[in-house]
Amino acid sequence: MSGFENLRHAELTTSGRAAIYQALLQLHLPVQSSVLVPTYHCPTMIAPVLMANLNPVYFGLTDDGLPNLATIDAVTADGCKAMIVSHYFGFSRSLAEVRQWCDQRGIALIEDCAHCYFGNAGNRPVGAWGDFATASLTKFFPVPEAGVLASAHHDIPPLRLSPPGLKAQLRGLADVLELSAEHKRFAGINSALRLLFWLKRSLRRTEPKAEAPPASATENMMQDCDMARIAQGPLWVSSALMSVLPRGRVMARRRENFALYARHFDHVLGARPLFSSPPESAAPYVFPLWVDEPDQVYLALREQGLPVFRWDRIWPGTPHRDGDVGPLWSHHVLQLLCHQDLTEADIERTCRAILSALPPAPASAISAAH
Ligand SMILES: Cc1ncc(COP(=O)(O)O)c(C=O)c1O
Predict the structure, then answer these.
(1) Among residues 78, 205, 221, 244, which is most buried (max CB within 10 A)?
(2) How many Å apart are CA 72 and CA 313, to the nearest integer?
(3) How far is the centre of ligand 1, averaged over its atoms, from the C-alpha of 16 (Å)?
(4) 241 in a domain, yes or no?
(5) Is 370 a residue whose pLDDT tops 90?
């Protein structure tokens, strides 16, 4: 099976954000060096740059989610030492052009594969374009927390990570058992598990925090990114599970779920799939849906607790540039989870909720459609 696991060198971390942080450390850049990051992002892609004492500088995106290299002027490019590029939604794309652009300028490429763990990106396995590549395992596997720093090209010396304490190890184990019980994989021992969950909750109880002074937008964002465990080692339970969990079902079920979403949004007024079917070998992370008037729809979905996200919290200071779809996607694109454990009924529920929250089509549009 092609994909991230084909990369020659790999080290487990606690998360995708920790892997990005560790990738930046591998580059040994001078303090406050500039790092190119996309305008369309989850804040956890930017926080590691700041944690590594580096300076994020933004680039825009083309319609297919690749870096729009025309949005980076020569002076900016000259001052940058690294670039973080993501395969959004699991639509892995060839990074041949970006790789060449980086090589010509001596810029290190970090390939963020948080959304695509399997398959190829053009004619290379995902992750093989970057000097370093990063993955977020919790998005694809039932592990309590884990990411990977990998490279097809460079040795990765053992990361100097501090070992997690016993409390964290036990909490991780309890998380896995709880998740399994939710999915009814432990029929007959549920009362024993309830005891474990109580133990887990009591481990999580923390002292009340003293009143803090008001924080800046950046401090708030950083706090929400929860970067506390980026320098810690992975949990024992995550490492153990990753060596035994099956991969094939994950890919097949995600593609099926993607196709189910696609069927609902084939001819809908006010919403359309952002892209058609994913690359042949990919296991999509989400189904990206463009919605013309997204605010009401997204609010309704969140209120119903449905598995849908929008990256509408972008890092303070992210610029608006001509020829960049990033700000449009942050507003209009809903990410509908394709997770393997979602059933056909779950997908139906989400689709029905979206369809009923879309504003009614004007009569002229309905008669034109007929
Ligand atoms: C594209 C992308 N990169 C990196 C991350 C960070 O991954 P993690 O949540 O495992 O830290 C995320 C998280 O949502 C992401 O969507």
Answers:
(1) 221
(2) 23
(3) 5
(4) no
(5) no
